[in-house]
């Protein structure tokens, strides 16, 4: 029993750990500030971006990095100073590609390569024949297949030359058709590289909702060089867009489980260092502000402050249009979701019906679809027939019952008649008379026998051969007896009549 309990606990533990492993894609995340930039104060006063280097036609401001401005044939790039010291990562880039033309050029590129690329290269502003990953936001449709703007990932081992003429379609690992130009809000790309799976989520910039990322692609078995460099580049051609990167946020991803102890220590050290740096930076900034205010008159400051509160009619109109549009977009999205749900249900129902048709009409729930009508009609008819039959049976049974009752009563009467029959038949004469008659017959027989004996006695000794008592004499004797009896009875009747008269 003790063993069983232990086994049970082990099972519980195993199930629990399996469950947590399933849920356990919540790897450890760590924000890597040394591989990131973001506003405000993206660039310092001297124009440098901490931990980054930019060149070519790129310009960094406090709010963004204009990697390539909207002028013809511009090329620029920004590369991180240090190679990364972690294996898996996620990079979130917020950018805007804007231009007055209906078509723009050339595009923006995200890089993760074994070495830093150039600042004025031929592939979206940086080096060709790179070793690693390039993700291109290609605005211009070079191959004229009407499939741009396009987002694509291209892997290179340092040997391939990018196929600009075909927009890289012969080389791409994965991609998706997305319009990222001239959006009301900044567009975003979230690139994740974890356990050799590369995914790209894209935020269309149609809403201001932080959660509106959609999958662009997912590629497995992607092997990137270790300790590479992050970079962003952009280029313009005959047509030109502004290519602004607002933020570049890097997060290192660590597999679930106990996080490395030294990593923890380093991060806490880093935190202390970072907060120290931040405080220093803040102090410097405050000093600069004070100096600025001292140097410049108040009116200018006021003008700058109030600029934020005003908007032109066009701006207001646009803002209202955008807010209305984003509401419409949300409503449409909700509708789309519900429609999907309905379509799903319909398909499920259809599959059930087809199952029902294949498996016959009498398979429970499945038979209720197509088989409903004929089955029900037949059943109704059957029910009607059964009801009719039942009614007939009932009426027949009633008839039979009444008939049986009749028979019963008749039998009763017959039985009672039979029971009364002997009395009824013999009643006029009376039972006593019968026995009296038989007695009288017996008596007469006895009398005859006695008379015969007497005759024999009389004949043999005393009487002559002729009878002593003749028949005449006997009859006479009987007649006299009868007369006496009659006379008595007449006398008795008269006496009774007389007695009745007295009353
Ligand atoms: Ca192109
Ligand atoms: Ca194309």
TrEMBL record:
<feature type="region of interest" description="Disordered">
    <location>
        <begin position="285"/>
        <end position="305"/>
    </location>
</feature>
<dbReference type="Pfam" id="PF03388">
    <property type="entry name" value="Lectin_leg-like"/>
</dbReference>
<feature type="transmembrane region" description="Helical">
    <location>
        <begin position="472"/>
        <end position="491"/>
    </location>
</feature>
<dbReference type="GO" id="GO:0000139">
    <property type="term" value="C:Golgi membrane"/>
</dbReference>
<keyword id="KW-1133">Transmembrane helix</keyword>
<keyword id="KW-1015">Disulfide bond</keyword>
<feature type="domain" description="L-type lectin-like">
    <location>
        <begin position="29"/>
        <end position="253"/>
    </location>
</feature>
<dbReference type="GO" id="GO:0005789">
    <property type="term" value="C:endoplasmic reticulum membrane"/>
</dbReference>
<protein>
    <recommendedName>
        <fullName>L-type lectin-like domain-containing protein</fullName>
    </recommendedName>
</protein>
<keyword id="KW-0812">Transmembrane</keyword>
<dbReference type="GO" id="GO:0033116">
    <property type="term" value="C:endoplasmic reticulum-Golgi intermediate compartment membrane"/>
</dbReference>
<keyword id="KW-0472">Membrane</keyword>
<dbReference type="InterPro" id="IPR005052">
    <property type="entry name" value="Lectin_leg"/>
</dbReference>
<dbReference type="GO" id="GO:0006888">
    <property type="term" value="P:endoplasmic reticulum to Golgi vesicle-mediated transport"/>
</dbReference>
<dbReference type="InterPro" id="IPR051136">
    <property type="entry name" value="Intracellular_Lectin-GPT"/>
</dbReference>
<keyword id="KW-0430">Lectin</keyword>
<dbReference type="GO" id="GO:0030134">
    <property type="term" value="C:COPII-coated ER to Golgi transport vesicle"/>
</dbReference>
<dbReference type="GO" id="GO:0005537">
    <property type="term" value="F:D-mannose binding"/>
</dbReference>
<feature type="signal peptide">
    <location>
        <begin position="1"/>
        <end position="24"/>
    </location>
</feature>
<keyword id="KW-0732">Signal</keyword>
<dbReference type="InterPro" id="IPR013320">
    <property type="entry name" value="ConA-like_dom_sf"/>
</dbReference>
